[in-house]
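User: I'm writing a short report section on ligand binding and want a predicted complex to refer to. Could you take this sequence and 2,5-dioxopentanoic acid and write out the structure as tokens? A short remark afterwards would be nice.
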Amino acid sequence: MKLYKTKEGILIEKEENSYLFKEQDWDTFINDDNLFEKLEGLIQILQKSAPVNVADILAPIQNQELWACGVTYLRSKVGRQEESKAAGGSDFYAKVYDAERPEVFFKATAHRVVGTGDKVNIRKDSVWDVPEPELTLVVTSSGKIVGYTIGNDMSSRSIEGENPLYLPQAKTYDGCAALGPCVFVTDQPIDLNSLIQLEIKRDQKIIFEANITLNQMKRSLEELVSFVYRECSFPKGCLIMTGTGIVPGSDFTLHSKDEIKISIDSIGTLVNTVR
Ligand code: DO4
Ligand code: MG
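Assistant: Sure. The structure tokens for the complex follow:
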């Protein structure tokens, strides 16, 4: 089942049918360990509605914090080592890839996040920017993964590469993340053979495309949740980006007006343009 946060309310989509649940508080609705069973129950009693209107879709976040994990795929480790060689950061990335404790960092609150169809941002003080396509977990206060969405962890490689201590500036700024289009809710763990695909278009032409399967991730999803939840409570639940396995080559940087499309099997496609 797919769950959309929309301007009209919360829309549940199951196979070809849609059900609109109006005037519902997203925070209360989503922060439910029995979300899948709740949706199964609701579609028995709700009237069918019109299918989701893409222009009405909002980012699936309200008062949840958005956290992110890093260097969870080999490609991310290698890309980061390349960009930080001059700053001597190379060792840190090799160590964190192999360490028991993963890299986790605070990414944003809803205020800095956009939904599908909206504009992501690149910083004016950055000269090297990339999107990072990431499976993103929807986690309740108790630490249960109840859904999956698509995330774009926009990143400044020039700032991050200059000094790894600049990570918060490379990662967190207005328009630094996109989430959506929906939350995929299932009673089974997501299939780790699912493909993440990234396509970037400039002037209607594809200038970069790549894909990777989730099973290339070095760590388990539960492991990442358990580290984010160590000594942190999340009264409204939390969204967790799980890291990128796709890093374009060093000669690539995003431009204003580029279109970024990220697809993950079973979830859908998140589309954004650069402001
Ligand atoms: O250490 C830098 C950030 C890593 C990251 O965001 C990723 O691997 O996805
Ligand atoms: Mg990332």
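A remark for your report: The pocket of magnesium ion (ligand 2) is lined by residues 68, 70, 132, 134, 153, 241, 243-244 (CB under 6 Å). The two ends are 32 Å apart (CA to CA).
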